[in-house]
Amino acid sequence: MRFALSAIGFAMILTLPVEGAQAEASYDAERRVFRLDGGDVTYAFKVSRDDLLQSVYWGERLEAEDPIDGPEIGGLSGFDVTANVVPQEYAGWGGGLFADPALKVAWPDGNRDLVLHYRSHKIERDAVTVELQDIQRPLTVILHYTIDPDTGVIGRSASIRNDGDMSVRIDRAAAAGYTLPVDERYRLHYTTGRWAAEWQRGDAPVSAAGTVLESRRGSTGSENNPWFMITVDGETTEQSGPAWIGALAWSGSWRIGVARDVAGRTRITGGFNPFDFAYSLAPRETLETPVFYAGYSDGGMGAASRVFHRFQRQSILPRHDGRLPLRPVLYNSWEATEFAVDEAGQMRLADLAARIGVERFVMDDGWFGERNSDHAGLGDWQVNPEKFPNGLKPLIDHVQARGMEFGLWVEPEMVNPDSELYRAHPDWVINFEGRPRTEGRNQLVLNLARQDVRDHLLGVLDDLLSKNDIRFLKWDYNRNWSEPGWPSVPVDEQQEIYVRYMRNLYYILDELRRRHPGVEIESCSGGGGRIDLGIMQRTDQVWTSDNTDPVDRLLIQDGYTQAYDPGVMMAWVTDSPNWVNRRSTPLSFRFLSAMQGGLGIGNDLTEWTQEDFATAKRYVAAYKRIRPTVQRGDLYRIDRPEEGDVRSTTLYVAPDRSQAALFALVQGTHRLDPRRPIRLQGLNEDARYSVERMDGEPLASATPTEASGAYWMRHGIDVPLRGDFQGVGLIFTRQ
Ligand code: GLA
Fold first, then answer.
1. pLDDT digits over 209-242, tens only?
2. Which of 182, 263, 627, 707 has the highest Cβ tally under 10 A?
3. Per-residue pLDDT averaged across 578-587, rounded?
4. Cβ atoms 154, 88 nearer than 8 A
């Protein structure tokens, strides 16, 4: 018996078995409490005495029999009335609310008061739908809740419907508000950065001085990522303690606000960025918000990341024929040639790439229009006849004959003013009439909110993929918005650009995937400027940074993997000294850094020595052995790199624990400082594991070649590293 059944109430419990795991959604009619259980998590909320939807519990899974309820909450004083003190699941701005509202609207008569009361609900399998309505006016909000049976990750979004016969302006719309119980020790973790310096870790105490993570850039951005983690100071570490983690599935301007409210609870509200936002909701129209996903683990920051990675692999990343394909080892021409691509040069690189075991050959920028630099050509997606006199076919055939598939770089959403497309359609870009059009990298943003632009782009890309055997698109996006105007529609619809652009981008991606199911796509935005759960639902891999220095990259990878799956994180080995910071590093060190995600190679292979080829061949072969573990396994961040003198130890353990891959890298060692043994995690205690180096070299003399999982986890392994840019990769195999 889960909840007491009363004469007037009912309890409805439906279970959905998925790969052995169970999720349950239920409603206790007596207490008016909703409950979702999945993985190790329980999430509960209730209808308050005042018919507000009130958060009750979010954390470690509770017993099915536990009688979950929340207190009746009233106002604190005349200054803080009930609406402001109740931790509402989805608060309308009105009725005395000062905390972050989820929804703020304006009716044509100037009324801007919105008080959302519970009306009805539906329980379906592992989902709950709750309908809220304004106390007087015809506006309905339908809240959608799901829980993932395996990981306990909650998905929340809202459908905002205008049931009246006049338009309503929406000034602000969140996907969801999450609440954490009273505690003064919360710490917010986020990422920050800029081009070539993405994914830096940041943290701040959660206090009454709220923190806003956001992008006003029209796209996800790298200044902040739409992701958060909250831990408890003094309690949570990488390996233990409570951690809440969440991310928005949205690639446009977004906002996540985190603050302690007047009653001491922490509220997290995330959705569309309200800055410059206005959406004119016509009669009978519904605005769908993005989904705000969030999970919980009591196993520390590491476990919270692992839960989120697993959730992404199971429920976010696109499948092909029902499967999540492994990332092929790719070669990309960008750092080798920049814009100077041509048939002979690319064929030569393809010959050399094939020699080391590359599986996907990607030609980057420069192949189309008058694209000889970043000053011209974007928008003209016809093959440049001087560089490729016979089109792409000879190169594609050449690549395929060497056992590789062919991929191509595109940047569909952009146009250079110096292009045929812009000369024909100067009105197709985002702009304010008569104002300067600020250029970024000599380019402007096409207004995808326009139907004609959307249809044009879909047509061009569809044509490209139909006429050529292209298996992969690197989809780039190299600037942010400026002058975000849409002059060709009525004034009250112009700010809908923030929503409509993104919906059309998603439409194009979805439609291309439907028409060309064999094609994979990478999300790139001058590096990691557009990585979020929304774009990841439609792309197969992501590019975290143009910064390919292997030391900087360890920091970038550590920041990125807090939130996102390492399996789809592309990382390239490139030339030394690195073009960003002029740092010189050994080739083996660069491989060990890049092998921790989806491995790529971006070197000018025509400059390589025989020894370089031999080194690369060895590491590529080792990578293919550990690839399923790196791309599908559990990531343990054993030593997290810190700014300055980077030292990083990461471990990937196969889901069935049959293999583990350990990467230990140091930027430099000092004196004769001893290094403590590395203790593994996640192995089978009783099983025996052999160990070998990825480069085939012998182990240090005192290291056993085989021992129990318990030995590797308790005693650990000595990894003696001395010198600058030293690294070792080890493969543990269960016997
Ligand atoms: C962006 C990408 C690079 C490369 C260039 C091409 O900067 O991040 O990888 O594709 O564009 O212009």
1. 999 999 999 999 999 999 999 999 999 999 999 9
2. 627
3. 98
4. no
Cα separation, 65 vs 528, in Å, equals 45
Report the separation in Å between the CA atom of 525 and the middle of ligand 1, taken as the mean of its atom positions.
Answer: 8
Tokens 């505690």: give the residue. 183
pLDDT tens profile 548-573: 999 999 999 999 999 999 999 999 99
User: CB neighbours (10 Å) of residue 722?
Assistant: 12
190 forms beta bridges with 202
3 state SS for 430-489 = CCCCCCCCCCECCEEEECCCCHHHHHHHHHHHHHHHHHCCCCEEEECCCCCCCCCCCCCC
Whole-prediction pTM: 0.96
Mutate to test the pocket of ligand 1, among 341, 524, 578 (most ligand atoms within 8 A of CB): 524
Cα separation, 627 vs 638, in Å, equals 20
Instruction: Specify whether the CB–CB gap between 356 and 406 falls below 8 A.
Output: no
What does each C-alpha distance from 153 to 464, 496, 597, 641 come to in angstroms?
A: 38, 30, 23, 28
How many C-beta atoms surround the C-beta of residue 442 within 10 A? Answer: 16
pLDDT tens per residue, range 186-206: 999 999 999 999 999 999 999
Cβ pair 378, 476 in contact under 8 A: no
Rounded mean pLDDT, 472-501? 98
Residue 491 CA to residue 433 CA, distance in Å, equals 12
Ligand 1, atom 7, lies closest to the CA of 526
Burial class (CB in 10 A: 0-12, 13-18, 19+), 289: buried
Query: Residue 314 is encoded by which pair of tokens?
Result: 């199971």
Q: Whose CA is nearest to atom 9 of ligand 1?
A: 546
State pLDDT tens for residues 37-73: 999 999 999 999 999 999 999 999 999 999 999 999 9
Mean pLDDT of the chain: 96
Catalytic residues: 476, 546
Rounded Cα–Cα distance for residues 427 and 448 (Å) = 12
Is the predicted pLDDT of residue 108 greater than 80, yes or no? yes
Q: What is the pLDDT of residues 659-713, one digit of tens each?
A: 999 999 999 999 988 889 999 999 999 999 999 999 999 998 889 999 999 999 9
Which position has the higher pLDDT, 458 or 643?
A: 458
Confidence of residue 20 (pLDDT cuts 50, 70, 90): low
Q: What are the φ/ψ torsions at residue 143 (nearest 5 degrees)?
A: -95, 130
Question: 195, 478, 545: which to mutate for ligand 1, most atoms within 8 A of CB?
Answer: 478
- Strand ranges, E, within 582-658: 598-601, 634-639, 647-653
Radius of gyration of the chain measured on its C-alpha atoms? 27
Beta strands 598-601; 330-332: pairing state: parallel
Q: What average pLDDT does this structure show over 327-344?
A: 98
User: What per-residue string of b and e applies to 134-151 under the rule 16 or more CB within 10 Å gives b?
Assistant: beebebbbbbbbbbbbbb
Give, for ligand 1, the residue of 363, 365, 578 to mutate: max count of ligand atoms closer than 8 Å to Cβ: 365
CA nearest ligand 1 atom 2, residue? 526
Distance (Å, whole) CA 523 – CA 714: 40
What is the whole-number distance in angstroms between the Cα of residue 722 and the centre of ligand 1?
A: 35
- Tell me which residues have their CB closer than 6 angstroms to ligand 1: 334, 364-365, 409, 476, 478, 524, 526-527, 546
8 Å CB contact between 199 and 544: yes
Closest ligand 1 atom, residue 524 Cα: 8
Percent of the chain whose pLDDT exceeds 90:
95
* Strand-pair partners of 267: 179, 259
Q: From CA 565, how far away is CA 567, in angstroms rounded? A: 5
Residue 231 in contact with residue 246, Cβ under 8 Å?
no
